[in-house]
């Protein structure tokens, strides 16, 4: 073989080998590109799922916060109404006709008396709770009826305090209304937050 033919043969073999290497390289690049595309598709799907899940969680949080805000506003309105109702109740109770007021006070006194020998403390301006009313309550209490009107007066508004030694049983209108209010507020809280 001549030198020229040898060179051509070498060049031909080199071209053939280069063609094989290029083909293998193209195939490898195509496989890697396909794998990369597949991975990107998978990442996109996962990202979409995560974004959707995150969006739903955010939506649920916003809805829960909105529900809580509405419930809080609702409770605030109920409290305003309660304030008005209790203010009206206080005014109406204070303005009861004398006979009705004495009847209510006599019932409260009979119920509140523990030993029957307590002192009855009334408001400085109280005119409707007097010795006559105390005597009526004592008669209803029977043998244990020994209540007496105290010389001491307080700033109670309406109602009274029964005192025996250091023990006091406060049945003033303010305390009675506050107890009723607490019970109603517990019911409101149950409505707002569930049982």
Structure described in brief:
The protein has two domains: 1-95; 98-185, ATP synthase, E subunit, C-terminal (hypothetical protein PF0899 fold, 2-Layer Sandwich).
If you had to describe this structure to a student in words, what would you say it looks like?
The protein is of the alpha+beta class and 195 residues long. It folds into two domains: 1-95; 98-185, ATP synthase, E subunit, C-terminal (hypothetical protein PF0899 fold). The chain is built from four helices and four strands, in the order H-H-E-H-E-E-E-H. It has helices at residues 3-94, 98-112, 131-141, 173-193, and strands spanning 119-123, 148-154, 159-164, 167-172. The chain has a four-stranded mixed sheet. It is rod-shaped and about 150 Å long. The model has no long low-confidence stretch (mean pLDDT 82).
- Counting DSSP H or I runs of 4 or more residues, the number of helices is 4
How confident overall, as mean pLDDT?
82
Going by helix content, strand content and strand pairing, the class is alpha+beta
**SSE string, helices as H and strands as E:** HHEHEEEH
Descriptive tags:
195 residues, alpha+beta, 4-stranded mixed beta sheet, 4 strands
Helix and strand arrangement:
Blueprint: H1 3-94, H2 98-112, E1 119-123, H3 131-141, E2 148-154, E3 159-164, E4 167-172, H4 173-193
Parallel strand pairs: 1-2
Antiparallel strand pairs: 1-3, 3-4
Helix pairs in contact: 1-4, 2-3
